[in-house]
Amino acid sequence: MPYKIVATRGDEVLRSERESLLIAAAKARVWARVGWDVVVTDPDGNAVDPAEFERLFAPPDPRRAKLREVSARLRLAATV
User: Fold this and answer.
1) Of 56, 11, 60, 55, residue with least CA distance to 36
2) Which domain holds residue 63?
3) Quick count: other Cβ atoms within 10 Å of Cβ 5?
4) For the chain, how many structural domains are there in total?
5) What does pTM read for this prediction?
């Protein structure tokens, strides 16, 4: 089920649907940067918090990468 993007500016309305939240967020960010009021809704019809977009596009935290690496090593060691 798709994410729906609706952008309004004055009397104009743009609509788009995307399967990926990442792609929907990218489109919404572009439209917002050029002056559109944008709302993205999830497949259940709930508005997606724009703060979620920033988390999607934030650079990876190197501490999380290290934590994933350590976790993977521990899982591997537990199977031996």
Assistant:
1) 11
2) 3-79
3) 23
4) 1
5) 0.67
Beta carbons of 3 and 41 less than 8 angstroms apart = yes
Q: What is the 3-state secondary structure (H, E, C) of 18-61?
A: ECCHHHHHHHHHHHHHCCCEEEEECCCCCECCHHHHHHHHCCCC
Cβ-based neighbours of 39, under 8 Å, separated by 6 or more: 5, 6, 7, 47
Locate 64 and state its tokens. 């999380």
40 within 8 A of 47, measured Cβ to Cβ? yes
Q: Which portions of the chain are predicted below pLDDT 70?
A: 80
Strand partners, 14: 7
Residues in contact with 31: Cβ distance below 8 Å, sequence separation at least 6, in sequence order: 5, 7, 14, 38
Coil/strand/helix, residue 13: strand
The alpha-carbon radius of gyration of the chain (Å, integer) is: 18
